[in-house]
Design a protein that fits this description.
- This protein is an all-beta fold.
- Helix content is 0%, strand content 46%.
- It has strands spanning 2-6, 9-11, 17-24, 33-38, 45-50, 57-59, 67-72, 77-82, 91-97, 114-118.
- Strands 2-10-9-4-5-6 form a six-stranded mixed β-sheet, with no helix packed on it. A four-stranded antiparallel β-sheet has the order 1-3-8-7, with no helix packed on it.
- The chain starts with a strand and ends with a strand.
Length: 120
């Protein structure tokens, strides 16, 4: 199993970023997927999940209306479009196998993460 996140960077408040996660080593199309973030000194925070075939999406209240999760099963890629970024969005973002209630099972096999820094 390999998950490789990319797309992070430093942006000003109100800016946008698009994160991507390239997945391999498992059946991506049949796996719910999740984005989780971890700010310095804090525990993992669930951000968003997307189901496998129907691509039903779920969002934390803190990002609802600003972030959009999507997937391309043909390319085994998970994405997170982040708009109107806030200072509190600063964190390392990880893509993780599993849905909102099951991603913790797969947490230890997460990718290396991508740093998102929102700063003026």
């Amino acid at each position: 199993v390999q998950l490789v996140e990319s797309g992070g960077g430093k942006v000003q408040p109100g800016g946008s970023l698009r994160l991507s996660c390239a997945a391999s080593g498992f059946s991506f199309a049949t796996q719910d997927m999740t984005w989780v973030r971890q700010a310095p000194g804090k525990g993992p925070e669930w951000v968003s999940s997307i189901s496998d075939a129907l691509a039903i999406t779920y969002y934390a209240d803190s990002v609802k209306g600003r972030f959009t999760i999507s997937r391309d099963n043909d390319k085994s890629t998970l994405s997170l479009e982040m708009n109107r970024l806030k200072l509190d969005d600063t964190a390392v973002y990880y893509c993780v196998r599993g849905g909102r209630r099951t991603y913790s099972i797969y947490w230890s096999s997460r990718g290396q993460g991508t740093q998102v820094t929102v700063s003026s």
